[in-house]
Amino acid sequence: MKYVGKSFPIHDASSKAAGRAVYAGDMELKGMLHMALLFSSIPHGIVKELDCSKALEMPGVVDVIHCFNTIDTEYNQYQTQFGQDLLHTTRAFNSHVRYVGDRIAAVIAETEEIARAAVSQIRVEYEELPYSLTMEDTLTGKIDNIHETGAVFDCPEVKVGEKPEGDDLVEIHTTTDLSRVNHICMETHACVADYEPFSGQLTVWSPNQTVYGIRTVLGDIFHMDYNRIRVIKTTMGGSFGGKQEWVLEPVAAAAALRVGRPVKLVYNRNETIASTYSRAPFHFDSTFTFQKDGTLMGIETDFMLDAGAYLGNSINYAKTIPHKMYRAYHYPYLRVRPKVVLTNTIISGAFRGWTSPEATVMFEHNMDMAAKKLGIDPVDLRIKNVMHLGDVDPLSGVPIGNFKAEEALRQGREHFNWDARRKEVQEFNAGNKRFKRGVGMSFGAHVNSFYPSKTDYARVDMRLAETGSVSCNLTLHDHGCGTVQAFRIIAAEALGIPLSKVLVGEGDTMYTPLDVGCFSSRTTYVQGRAAVECAGKFKERLRQDAALLSGVPAEELVVEGETVHSAADPQICYTWSQIADQAQQVLKHEVFVSYEYIPESNPGVGGAHFAMVEVDTYTGMTKILDYLAVHDIGQAINREMCVAQVQGAVTMGSGAALSEHVITRANGKPANSLKDYHVLNSFEAPDVKVELIEDGGTEGPYGAKSIGEVCHTPVAAAVVSAVNHALDSDMDSIPLSPDVIVNYLREREDA
What is the value of pTM for the model shown? Predict the structure, then answer.
């Protein structure tokens, strides 16, 4: 192939390097105003009175909107589709505040500086209510009044098969606790909204994962016809799930509708941590049952998810966990009982992998504990139980397809020198008191689309310019990692023309096709396949037009490169530019094709990750010495982009394993700065070697499968595995921060 599988810079690399890329926070529109928000300073209570008089007196302040003077429609910030079955519990501004960071009011002013200064002049009188900062407190009934719908939600039990019984079975029981983790994107949350009162048009510019999802929720909140709302996806500085729920958009829209002018709202880092949403804390209580030869026979797990102050996506998130537990391994029995619990803390929401990383930490830790008890090598135990070609996901009924789990595990074992390193660290640890080394691994898997659980489809339009270039119109949402360039590669390969001749844009509800959004790792697999199919239809349209122009039967014409020519007579040859011109002048139409694609498969996509760490037992500090990620990807589209995705995911997942945790203090206030929230710095990031298994065999474009979420799925589990191997421990409450490790070692020594 000419382009697919090669490496190219992302489409806007040069403009970003030159500082010319325009993000939502950079936008300037005629007459633009700025917003700053007032947030609740208490974890739970009722706003009894707001005194905005001093703020309104300040020069440059245009208006103050708040919980008593603006629209009070309840909605769910996770809504992305029309008529979605969700509980609506939040408003743009809330008088019943439910966490420190809840929105109460906003100042609209000529500058951001004036708006922020004016916010400090607003006085709030609260009636304080009892609050809960933990799921355990909520379960005692402490905050039953947090919402009319209650504070505890039991999701339906999921059960497959019958519980195994027998004297020769071995049970492994663990509890797993996961902390609240923030996305920490380079770009904080930002949004611009403008309302044109004469046309009744609301326009919103936002870095987001579904322009049509925003259109839907704004239309429902403000009771507007969807066609009166235009949403434009802006340059994005990272999402990781953090920009697929609607935090700023309803607020900015409310302000624009009120003043009839453009309004910009940009959160700083503190606000982005405390007042958007984070990955949910989890508590798992799990029992895995094995035969003595290591065959996994069944899993039972009860888990609780801390939803924070509003439900958001939490019920849907919890319901997804069982489905992710059949993406990698085959076993006859599963029973899962999910529970969602509200607390007076930061709202929980989407995070990269959408429950796959969380489920994998629990799952892989149990596999490690089983390997230890059964005396089986951890890699061998995985190989014995992973899914293979021909296996079917029992919950979805969909075949796992061309799934190379065993190959990834075997390749990783060999290339990481697994067996030799396990012996080496054993010898190292025997001779060192302070420093201990460990070698761990995990396997994680994910999906490639919504199929068959939800509606999924994609439409692509292609049109030919008179210069012979092709505009490929579809609704993309590039997170900053190169999606647009990947689609230029796919289209150029399928069309057989130079990369420079293909134009690809991003989502705009006025111009790009209706689409369900950038979720569930569907972009490349579903929209990419749609682009390939559309290119085929497009070339056929060129052939038919050339036949009409030349009088030669279409079946005798060949589309090759940037020409359409006769196989029998080389003199009959049209360039694409000529066809574009003659189609208009002679045939009286534009060379245009539209194609709609519906996926009918969702094969397994997975990665085997291997980590080597060194733990300082005096300080609890952990250093990752080496890391290998082997991924079954089907086919890399832009090779270096895929490698970079994995390397970035390893740094992110390692942070979740070792240091990242949004701490909530006893008064309900979260630690909301990077001084207190510890991400891995560049000098701490591991050197990650990436290997890709590419043999196609899927419906994806050129056999490609997903990479953006699955590469994050195994990471935390692999690092936890390595730390436990180093310390001969069974810790499974992440992050394994220095304090956690030191306290564990002290308690073990005391015991």
Answer: 0.97
